[in-house]
Backbone:
């Protein structure tokens, strides 16, 4: 069967592409990566080095005309978590005026302007998205769901912690899939119903099973006016109504809390450590050990602000060194560099305590070894890439299930 054509936005170093193309069911026909805050476009350079420069754009997506983006079946991307508030409606237009630089509206604009809309969307974000902003919990996600609903998409989402399904890193992210109303899968969702789709029959549920018991079940309709959602959604400042699992179909939301159901093999931190010698710079010097121990330890102390105000500060201890018989903690963007840090990973080896190598960080996100290795790119930048990346195994598995469901329905035998 013909491969599905993919457009990859906010591509980073290509995590979505790696996962999807590894299934052999997808072909990326256009990609975009632009880092606004840096002069040298390191991530885009890595992307081009691995996948070629053809059909790759290193330009601010807000300035790329939709006409330059080829038609595609699947739009993917890990877009930044920002403030998605709507400033005002545009006259004589179906568009909306969000704040400049808020990249969700670039996705919205492409979907709005494409005559042949993509059949599916596959997006990723930090799970904080479900409860942002703090003064109107869930408003940003409500805006996204309503705008996608208006564009003809049914949306399912799930917060997935990679380690809970046997992968090597405790990395919790929200993944969501959207199905256009023109697809047979959209009609299947309508027939199946939100609850059965989310618990057993759906793309994510088939890939990453959950238990039968659910909590905090909520059903509600989203306001049809985006400006009203922007101004009034959850204005009473309660908890976000969006749980870790849910669906929005025709503006109606069903959401509840699920727990993972997995008893397969598990990868732990020890499994991904390099067997060969690593860069000596990764080892912690004895003179620095006291600083590391302090930063990783529990604290109860009085601190002073710049203005001289004294306050009580406390925090719990971190496991130090990191447990080798467990999946790793979440990789952060500041993982590189020699300076002592509370959050960097440190492992005990036969030769002493050391930080993780760039290859080990790549393995924790299930990237190929040395995917980010390129002349002129320091190890700290490679670590930064992995702090921003997603776990490739999640994309590969969901992508494989999506294609299977798509082909079974689109071209029945």
Residues:
């Amino acid at each position: 069967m013909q491969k599905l054509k993919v457009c990859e936005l906010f591509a980073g170093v290509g995590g979505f592409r790696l996962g999807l193309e590894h299934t052999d069911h997808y072909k990326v026909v256009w990609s975009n990566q632009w880092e606004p805050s840096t002069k040298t476009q390191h991530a885009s350079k890595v992307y081009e080095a691995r996948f070629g420069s053809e059909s790759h754009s290193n330009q601010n997506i807000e300035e790329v005309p939709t006409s330059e983006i080829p038609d595609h079946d699947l739009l993917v991307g890990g877009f930044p978590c920002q403030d998605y508030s709507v400033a005002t409606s545009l006259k004589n237009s179906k568009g909306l005026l969000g704040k400049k630089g808020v990249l969700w509206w670039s996705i919205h604009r492409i979907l709005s302007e494409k005559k042949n809309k993509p059949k599916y969307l596959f997006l990723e974000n930090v799970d904080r998205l479900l409860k942002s902003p703090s003064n109107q919990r869930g408003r940003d996600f409500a805006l996204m769901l309503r705008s996608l609903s208006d564009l003809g998409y049914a949306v399912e989402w799930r917060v997935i912690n990679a380690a809970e399904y046997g992968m090597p890193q405790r990395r919790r992210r929200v993944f969501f899939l959207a199905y256009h109303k023109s697809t047979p899968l959209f009609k299947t969702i309508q027939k199946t119903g939100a609850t059965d789709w989310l618990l057993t029959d759906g793309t994510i549920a088939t890939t990453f099973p959950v238990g039968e018991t659910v909590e905090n079940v909520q059903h509600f309709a989203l306001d049809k006016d985006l400006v009203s959602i922007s101004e009034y959604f959850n204005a009473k400042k309660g908890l976000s109504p969006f749980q870790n699992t849910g669906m929005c179909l025709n503006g109606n939301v069903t959401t509840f809390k699920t727990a993972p159901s997995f008893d397969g093999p598990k990868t732990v931190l020890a499994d991904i450590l390099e067997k060969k010698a690593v860069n000596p710079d990764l080892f912690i010097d004895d003179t620095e050990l006291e600083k590391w121990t302090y930063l990783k330890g529990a604290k109860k102390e009085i601190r002073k602000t710049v203005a001289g105000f004294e306050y009580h500060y406390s925090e719990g201890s971190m496991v130090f060194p990191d447990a080798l018989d467990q999946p790793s903690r979440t990789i952060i963007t500041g993982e590189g560099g020699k300076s002592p840090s509370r959050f960097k990973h440190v492992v005990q080896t036969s030769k002493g305590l050391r930080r993780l190598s760039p290859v080990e960080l790549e393995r924790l996100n299930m990237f190929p070894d040395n995917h980010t290795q390129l002349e002129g790119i320091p190890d700290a930048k490679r670590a930064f890439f992995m702090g921003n990346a997603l776990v490739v195994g999640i994309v590969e598995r969901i992508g494989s299930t999506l294609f299977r469901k798509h082909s079974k329905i689109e071209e029945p035998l």
User: Anything to note?
Assistant: The chain has two domains: 4-262+391-410, 269-357.
